[in-house]
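W.,

You were right to be curious about this one. When I first looked at the sequence I had no strong expectations either way, so I just let the prediction run and decided to look at it fresh. Below is the sequence, 142 residues in total, followed by the output.
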Amino acid sequence: EDSESVLRTLVDHPAISCTIQLTVPDEMGILKIAEDTTTTTTMEFVAFVVVHVTLPATYPNAGTAPTIQVHDCMVTDKNAVCSPDKPLETLAYLDETKLQEALGEEIQGILPYPCVYEAGVTWLTENIYTYLELRAHLLLVK
């Protein structure tokens, strides 16, 4: 009976999960300001991404993929100064649907090998700007 209660405790244990914060500068210059918009300063974009990872109980066995979801994404100018009485808004929209589809494909391509770091950190850091679109109305114009 004692071993049965231990087994039940293990089975009923919640999934292991963690949250990862990524700071990703746009070093490749992927985000472009529209040519018809003249900015007052040069912008150096940086994305702050919060990713939540949940590991299924049988991970990394074959056929069990972790769940990797972007919970928040904020894009700002690296040199921007924001006063405390002003709300901070992201300078870009994230296409979450396309990002999740591509991330899922990347995970499936890595399985059965462990893929949290490769997909959730490396791939996301290299590809996040592909799924971002600038919000032109928030850019400083002359």
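Here's what jumped out at me. Strands lie at 16-25, 45-55, 67-77, 92-94, 132-134. And, maybe more interesting for your project: Residues 23 and 129 are 12 Å apart (CA to CA).

Coffee later to discuss?

I.
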